[in-house]
Each structure stands twice: as structure tokens, then as C-alpha cells.
Design brief:
By secondary structure, the protein is mainly alpha-helical. The chain is 69% helix and 0% strand. The chain starts with 9 loop residues before the first helix and ends in a 13-residue tail after the last helix.
């Protein structure tokens, strides 16, 4: 589990604290639920899906460049790990 610090406006914090108390929930739980809902909404966005495909290409290219740099520096020739659809 990771710890995350966020900055809220004073009014947002006061409202969040008040509503959490009224609902009998912790501020942390309210934030977690809100984040989970937002992540679900974002993951369902088809525009983000196409951007994910583009980002995968960039990540693969950068990884190949880093592997090549390591091979040049240390003389390693480890074959690149291929991504399988079953993974």
C-alpha cells in the first residue's frame, strides 16, 4: 500500500471532513471510494484506451533503447522479453 499526500482547499477539507463524519465514514474511506469511482470512469473512456496503445509503443521503444544502452555499457546481449497476449 502506498501513502499519498494531497493538498485541498480549506473549504474542500472542511466539507469532506463534515460529510465523512455525517455519513459515519473516515475521510480516508471517502477519498478511496471517490478515487475508485473516478478510476472506473476513466478506464471506460475509449479515448484513453487508444492513448494507452500509443503509450505502449513509446514504452516499448524506450525499453529497447535502454536495453541497447546497457548492452553497449556492459556487453550484455540478453534478448528482449517479448510481450505475450496470454500474460
Amino acid at each position: 500500500m502506498k501513502t499519498l499526500a494531497i493538498r485541498l482547499e480549506d473549504e474542500q477539507h472542511a466539507l469532506l471532513t463534515l460529510l465523512a463524519k455525517l455519513s459515519g465514514e473516515s475521510v480516508t474511506d471517502v477519498i478511496r471510494v471517490a478515487i475508485e469511482r473516478q478510476l472506473e470512469t476513466m478506464a471506460a473512456n475509449p479515448e484513453l484506451s487508444s492513448k494507452a496503445d500509443e503509450l505502449t509503443v513509446v514504452i516499448d521503444r524506450e525499453a529497447a533503447e535502454q536495453r541497447a544502452a546497457l548492452a553497449q555499457l556492459f556487453g550484455t546481449t540478453a534478448p528482449p522479453r517479448s510481450r505475450s497476449k496470454s500474460q
